[in-house]
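User: Sequence in, structure out. Go.
Assistant: Echoing your sequence, followed by the structure tokens.
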Amino acid sequence: MLKAAGMLGAEMSTTRVLLALLLTSAGLRRSSQEEIAEQQDSSLITSLLETYSAVQMPNNGSMPLRVSILISVSNVMDVDILQYTISSVLMLNQSWYDYRLRWNETQYPHHSITVPLETVWTPSFSIREAHTVETKDLSPKVKLHSSGWVQHILGLRVDSNCNFELFRYPEDDTDCQLTFSSLLDTELAFEVSYVNEIENVKHEYLVTTLDARTSHGPGPPSFSLTLHLQHTPSKTVLSLIVPSFAVLIADVFGFMLPILGNERISYKVTLLLGYLVFHSSLVNGLPGSSSCNPLLIHLFLSILTLLFISMIETIFVTRIASEDLPSWMSRILWTHYTPGNQNTGDDGKRIEAEEDRVTEPRSAQEMEQRRQKLAAGLDRGFTIVYVSFLLLFYAGFAGTWFLMECHTEARPRPRPGF
């Protein structure tokens, strides 16, 4: 039995040795194959780039070099209507034919290889509307195919100017354009397509459509990408418009407060001062334009003006109904509302003088009643005129909102390329 156990242990040791030898042989064979592949890659790259000039554009005879570009828009963020800027993240998948970079796969068994960006020629662009352009790849590569096709994927973050159409803010929609021009390589022809990869989640401005076009007119070869932005008005309506109309409705209901006393005056002054502070923040949060200011600016200014007029009217009628009137106002009211003021001649003056002491308390009481009646009539008439003007004004404002058009002129600015 001990002899059998010893034989079994010897066989297991022999098996382990054989497995170790096989693994070592496979590892050596794999290392040898990797070295051969690296040598072939190095030899292929050397043969392609030994006499290659990265500053010389591929020659396509009498025809311009065609560059196919697939634009993928992955995000639009930092939409700033006060500075008229947006930030967009793009991916440009470019491909073109370069006869100098093709090879025979029988000699070099590789369908494609990658080389550093600076070793081969690539198209250069400048974005007319951009003020900052950042590349997203820290070590960019270019993919070479054996047929001579070259592929380069360029990731960009572009901070650019956008001419927002804010006349109907917050229900505004705007076309923001990015114009790519090749100022150095003029013998190019672009074939452009696009893909919208934006997920419009929790964005105040939504990208509804994209459009890409190439320019065939005079000048350097170029193509443009247009992003149609649509504003979601929920936040602005709830934070700006609803509070403004709530203040105006509260002002209208303030006419139900009594004229006598200080309740109405305090109420109106509080509304005006509160909205005045609110109005300053509203104006600072809205953009301005040389020709097409947002209609909301005029709406907020009209509400502020109406609150001011309402407060002035309240002060006026309250002063009329009170006892401490100015002398000139008392004289006017006494002339028009005192019963004995229609007597003429000496008889009338004598009768009036004789009855002054008797009728003075009664005249003061009647004067107070007449002041209050006059103030109530003026207040009622002003309320009717005020509410009627509100209805007419906002009906006209709604018509202006839906019928009037206003478009600002574009302000393109040349920017450095990348």
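User: And one key feature?
Assistant: The chain has a mean pLDDT of 78.
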